[in-house]
Task: inverse folding
């Protein structure tokens, strides 16, 4: 697991960690290593701006972000090129899945807004491993959705910097950002690289103490 420094409860998975959505025995092993419950809350990710609130573990339905103020309750999303984001407040946490459609829809601002509406002031965020602008080849119709974040792949075709776009939306917070690109790293799942159905998780929790 990748543990961003300065966070009370945050971790990003890798291929070594495995896909923890359905592999319950491996999830329990990882949870034990992190000192948290294996009863995690997940969502059916749909590339939207939908945010749900978790009060217990299990599948919470269709959404792309989860917020909880329940101490000790892990909440998680799964990615394999899309951007995983963890947001921490003093008494709540959130986890976000942002592909380009979800980013355009405003899933990150929607999550920040829900935290604030519940009286939680976001103070730091972690942007986990995702496909970088170095490798995210897209068409003009996608680039047009991200003014100021057009880029170029290492092989010279048009791309867009989704992690950079999200970092700009989090500019008021202290931000930790992974330098790993899922497309080029052998340690991370990448759908664009090999059409894998496996996913690494991003999990966050509010400590009990």
Result:
């Amino acid at each position: 697991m990748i543990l961003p420094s300065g966070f009370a409860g945050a971790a990003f998975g890798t291929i070594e960690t495995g896909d923890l959505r359905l592999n319950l025995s491996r999830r329990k092993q990882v949870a034990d290593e992190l000192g948290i419950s294996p009863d995690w809350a997940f969502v059916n990710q749909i590339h939207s701006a939908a945010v749900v609130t978790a009060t217990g573990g299990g599948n919470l339905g269709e959404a792309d972000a989860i917020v909880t103020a329940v101490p000790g309750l892990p909440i998680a999303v799964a990615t394999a090129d899309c951007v995983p984001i963890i947001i921490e407040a003093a008494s709540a946490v959130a986890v976000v899945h942002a592909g380009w459609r979800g980013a355009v829809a405003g899933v990150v601002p929607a999550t920040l807004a829900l935290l604030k509406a519940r009286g939680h002031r976001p103070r730091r965020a972690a942007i986990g491993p995702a496909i970088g602008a170095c490798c995210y080849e897209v068409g003009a119709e996608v680039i047009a959705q991200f003014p100021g974040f057009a880029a170029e792949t290492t092989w010279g075709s048009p791309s867009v910097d989704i992690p950079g776009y999200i970092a700009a939306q989090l500019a008021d917070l202290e931000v930790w950002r992974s330098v790993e690109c899922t497309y080029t790293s052998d340690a991370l799942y990448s759908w664009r690289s090999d059409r894998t159905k496996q996913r690494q998780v991003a999990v966050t929790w509010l400590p009990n103490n």
